Amino acid sequence: MKKIAVFTSGGDAPGMNACIRAVVRTAIYHGLDIYGINRGYEGMIEGDIKRMQSHSVSNIVQRGGTILKSARSMEFKTLEGRGKAYNQLKSLGIEGLVAIGGDGTFTGAKLFFEEYGIPTVGCPGTIDNDIYGTDYTIGFDTAVNTALDAIDKIRDTAAAHDRVFFIEVMGRDAGFIAVESGIGGGAEFVLVPETKSDIDLIVKSLKNLRKSKSSSIIVVAEGDELGSAQTIMQLVKDRIKDPSKDFKVTTLGHIQRGGKPTARDRVLASRCGMAAVEGLLAGNTNCMAGVINGEVLYTPFQDCIGKTKPILSDHLKLIHLLSI
Ligand code: F6P
């Protein structure tokens, strides 16, 4: 293998740049030609591909976003789109890929490998942490700390006005950001897509809690099965039926996707990036480089996208127990 390419795809995540840097420099260290593909699979289809040097990744380790830009490509989901992408890679002689992204990215990479046999190793880049085969994903730690910082600030004003705040965090299919920011932020409740949310229980507990606490924080993952934080707040408010109680909603949104990556994200990204290139050279393919129990391990894409990483039950217990 002489020429490889790296790209970022799906929702961006803080630490993606640190990962690109590690891929580029590890490739150069091992004597490979390294290319960067802009805008994920979209750029692959269009041939928006450039040669990268060591200096191409200078001064990016600390930056959020991704210098290669990112996209969610509809065209790559078609046979024709993948055919175009293959021809672009072939014309440049690219023999291997490093795909930085989440489950959508790996679903595409797996299909592409099965159809065209281009060896690919993935790096888990998503703030959601919902990838099987790694304890944490690149960007998760930064996103949790961003959410936590906001929750701390909201707590100040919630206490000052004796209010109940419903804070919506990201997580379309998974509640990891909600759970960790909820534990760190001392939330009374955390509502996540993985467990059934019980409005009656929340109403009952809020009534009891309000005898001892004047304000409360409820963290809602955006993918909760009962709906958005706004919808859930309304359901609770309608049942509490007390006009003197003040309910507020804050949706944190995309601020969770940006910002300087934490040290943990930079180290994880660098480890995964190096492991992806060295995995390609060692013949590992159609798999993702992740870190489990401190060790770099390769997990087949099939498992990364087909298996669900569960929320730890002791995390759910902690939220319940510490809210009394
Ligand atoms: O997958 C990461 C994520 O931030 C999810 O938590 C969120 O639901 C989604 O991306 C939002 O995507 P977009 O930025 O394309 O609206």
Could you characterize what this model shows?
The chain has 324 residues and is α/β, with parallel strands linked by helices. Helices cover 44% and strands 19% of the residues. The strands form two sheets. The protein has a seven-stranded mixed beta sheet, sandwiched between helices. The protein has a four-stranded parallel beta sheet with strand order 7-8-6-9, sandwiched between helices. A hairpin with a 2-residue loop joins strand 10 and strand 11. The longest helix has 22 residues, at 140-161. It is elongated. The model has no long low-confidence stretch (mean pLDDT 96). 6-O-phosphono-beta-D-fructofuranose binds next to loops.
What attributes does this structure have?
324 residues; alpha/beta; Rossmann fold; 2 domains; seven-stranded mixed β-sheet; binds 6-O-phosphono-beta-D-fructofuranose
Helix content: 40-55%
Largest sheet: 7 strands, mixed
Integer average pLDDT: 96
Number of helical segments?
11
- Topology order in helix (H) and strand (E) letters: EHEHEHEHEHEHEHEHEHEEHH
CATH topology of the largest domain: Rossmann fold
Query: What is the spatial order of strands in the main beta sheet?
Result: 3-2-1-4-5-10-11
Report low-confidence residues grouped into runs of 5 or more.
none
Instruction: Tell me which CATH architecture of the largest domain applies here.
Output: 3-Layer(aba) Sandwich
What does the radius of gyration come to? Answer: 22 Å
Bound compounds, please?
6-O-phosphono-beta-D-fructofuranose
Oligomer: single chain
The chain-level structural class is alpha/beta
Tertiary shape = elongated
Strand count: 11
Distance between the termini: 59 Å
| Overall domain count | 2
Report the β-strand fraction as a percent range: 15-25%
